[in-house]
Amino acid sequence: MNAPTATDKAAKPKHQRMGVSEAMDLAAKAHQPSLSGRSLLPEFKPFTPAADTEPSEPTKPAAEGNRDIRTVLLELIDENPYAPREVYSPEVLRERAESLRANGQYEVIHIIPHPERPGRFMIADGWTRVTACRAHKVLDALAAQVHHDLSPLQAAWLGYNQNESREQHCDLDRAFFFDKMYAQGLTQSEIAKKTGISQTQLSFYTAFRKLPEETLQIIRLNPSRFPAYIAQNLAKVARKVSEDKASSLASIYSSNGQSVNWMINQCSLLLEKEPRSPQKQKVGKVFRYSNGVLRQKGAQFDLSIEIDEADQEEFNKALEALLSKFAKHAAPSEPATTEQE
Fold first, then answer.
1. Cα 43 from Cα 184, distance rounded (Å)
2. From the CB of residue 225, how many other CB atoms can be counted at a distance below 10 Å?
């Protein structure tokens, strides 16, 4: 076998996995004291096993450095309410189950002691494997690292940072996770700093929550096809054209394999056909004469006319008589004036 070349050593994998310790550091930074008291769960208290209590066999720690590695029954693991991932398509679960059945578990999942239910655990990272094993009856227990110093919110950030190195992590998952963080008091600016995603891009993720439920269900079945900017275009179609049009377009795009450009163009075409608000028509009339024109705009009359010199005196008298009947005299404080050119 040939030794690896300098080029091989320099090459970087497409998806570079973040180390657990690095992810934990980021998760710890993500947890801010200002969020305490806002959690849906009670205040987190680190779990400390009693010195005189021997853990049961399924959760007995293994000696591996300072890490608490256990084999944990799946029935003892609960979901994290701040989970960074919610989209589990049947295809993804089936593939993960087949992999576990054929190859076994090659990477530990990450859990924390459940803050409300003694003897149980809450997931930090690895819920896909737990769900796949349950759905397809592959394994009854998984090797897990127990983190005793993380709150549920910190555990969720640990899972988020791990998921960012995985292809299955999609914009729909990110959108749901960011909404949970907004609900916990984080601002868009704070999330941008934690994730490295610009605030402009973060605003695109909010489009998912504006989609009709039928469209969201279509996206859940094939989430990798729907990045945030596609969701933003569909949200515009749902709002400005119709929800049915948005759902129909999403279904065609998801199942028939059209390109992203096709999708964007279809949205643009629908938005261009949007009926514009009718402009108010100006109420008015125009009377044209051989020597001038009279324009009426509502209650206003504008006269522009040329009178022969021989008829000017008669015209002036007639005009004065007309104005004396309809024109309003100026108030005493605003005396009428005669303008000269």
1. 14
2. 18
CA angle 280/284/290 to nearest 5° reads 145
Task: Write the pLDDT tens digit of every residue in 166-186.
Answer: 877 899 999 999 999 999 999
Number of continuous H segments (helices) and E segments (strands) in the chain: 13, 9
> Which amino acid makes up residue 149?
D
| CA proximity to 100, closest of 78, 76, 130 | 130
User: Options 1.10.10.2830, 3.30.450.20, 1.20.210.10, 1.10.940.10; which CATH number does 170-273 get?
Assistant: 1.10.10.2830
d(CA 100, CA 108) in angstroms, rounded, equals: 12
- Where does CATH 3.90.1530.10 sit in the chain? 16-169
Where in the sequence of the chain do the CATH 1.10.10.2830 domains occur? 170-273
pLDDT (tens digit per residue) in 185-195: 999 999 999 99
CATH topology of domain 16-169: 3.90.1530
Cα(251)–Cα(287) distance, rounded to whole angstroms? 58
Compute the distance between CA of residue 253 and CA of residue 213 in angstroms, rounded to an integer: 17
The mean pLDDT value of the chain amounts to: 80
* Phi (first) and psi of residue 74, to 5 degrees: -65, -30
Bridge partners (DSSP) of residue 159 are none
* Rounded Cα distance, 26 and 45, in Å: 20
